[in-house]
Amino acid sequence: MPSSLHVPLLDLTAQYAPLRDEIQAAIARVCDSQHFVLGQEVRSLEHEIAAYSGTEYGVGVSSGTDALLVALMALDIGPGDEVITSPFTFFATGGVIARLGARPVFCDIEPNTFNLSAAAVEAFLAEECEQQGGGLTNKRTGGRIRALLPVHLYGQMADMNALGRLASRYGLAVVEDAAQAIGAEDSANRRAGSVGAVGCLSFFPTKNLGAFGDAGMCVTSDSALAERMTMLRVHGAEPKYFHSEIGGNFRLDELQAAVLRIKLRALDDWTAARQANAERYNALFAEAGLGEHIETPFQEVGGRHIYNQYVLRVPKRRDELRAFLAEQQVGTEVYYPLSLHQQACFSYLGYRDSALPESSRAAAEVLALPIFPELSVAQVEYVAAQIKAFFR
Predict the structure, then answer these.
(1) Whose C-alpha in 49, 105, 266, 314 is 20 to 30 A from the C-alpha of 285?
(2) What are the tens digits of pLDDT across the range 196-209?
């Protein structure tokens, strides 16, 4: 029989309650101003997020997807170009490349971090590409390899040292998909989004720093790129109604910016609570001796994992475990049930299902557990106990 204890995957009401009065006042301030798009709240948030991310500039946009899109547009990625990225990620990462008429190139992932494998990227560049006409060409497709788009999945940074060296060697621009990683750091204390040409953040409500709807931001220390992305987000207009190129409507609302500014002040405390929950899970699973059944998240030594998700590997009976936990009123999710190279819309790329084995294996094994900051000790212990009961 199900327990009376309920552990949702995420509970945003618990986060909102102590901030309610301050957030309502901020919303009222915006409503009283009657300035709803790209005003002072957005400018202040851009400055604050850029500083938090260790960059010079922030460009507020309408979503994390649009952050990726406008970053690639600012780098002139388009038809005939190819962008190397991870196949194990949210759809937007590959989708924005294809949307611009460019071709996604999927390289496999590291089995411990789930992030893009520098060794796989290096093998592709060395074995399947050649220098031609002053640029790097994919020998099979004839496309120009223009950029590298690593994803900092689940709140932990990809190996930007190794990937950065490859990008420099082959002349590739680097755009970081940091949608799940605001505040994450590598062992050199560099923050997610600050290493490449542009970092792309998402403020979707379920993220560690979530808005009250869709919102995103590009961060960069390149003034020319910041200026161009600022122009592209308003249909390429500079000044108003004068269009030197075609952009899009990627503007950030004042209401979202006002809410995010308040929540940003609590972000480090929330991150610390997520990290404490992760440590508690790790200890409970080790104490229960579940090592033969599950694999807990890997964390880079010296890095800062912000645990946007706490993701187990469950090599056997993953779906049975998930169904059992649902019966016990424990929320879980599979991020992601298909690798992008397995998605029907990318079948034209010609990848065999077995082409990227680590990504395919991850899709069959991952299971995210509740990790939100307000999770109680009793709830963490209950989740761990139910997993122990399932396997014992």
Answers:
(1) 266
(2) 999 999 999 999 99
Q: What are phi and psi of 371, to 5 degrees?
A: -145, 5
**Fold for domain 15-264?**
Aspartate Aminotransferase; domain 2 (3.40.640)
The per-residue pLDDT for 2 is 47
pLDDT tens-digit map of 140-195: 999 999 999 999 999 999 999 999 999 999 999 999 999 999 999 999 999 999 99
Query: Any alpha helices (H) in 133-288, and if so which ranges?
Result: 160-170, 223-232, 254-264, 267-288
**Residue 139 carries which DSSP code?**
T
Distance CA 256, CA 207 (A): 14
What's the CA gap between 173 and 98, in Å, rounded?
17
Annotation: CATH topology of 267-391: Aspartate Aminotransferase, domain 1 (3.90.1150)
Region class of 244: left (phi > 0), else alpha (psi between -120 and 50), else beta: alpha
**Phi/psi of residue 305, nearest 5 degrees:** -90, 125
Tokens of 161: 């040292």
Integer-rounded Cα radius of gyration of the chain? 21
Closest CA to 300 of 180, 119, 207, 161: 161
Q: Whole-angstrom Cα distance, residue 148 to residue 279? A: 33
CA of 280: how far to CAs of 43, 44, 288, 307, in Å?
39, 36, 12, 13
Identity of the residue numbered 192: A
Q: Residue 353 has what pLDDT?
A: 87
Q: Cα(381)–Cα(330) distance, rounded to whole angstroms?
A: 12
Tell me: cis bond preceding 150? Omega within 30 of 0 counts.
no
Whether the full predicted model's pTM is greater than 0.85, yes or no, is yes
Residue ranges of domains in the chain: 15-264, 267-391
3, pLDDT greater than 90 = no
Cα 113 from chain centroid (whole Å)? 13
3-state secondary structure of 249: strand
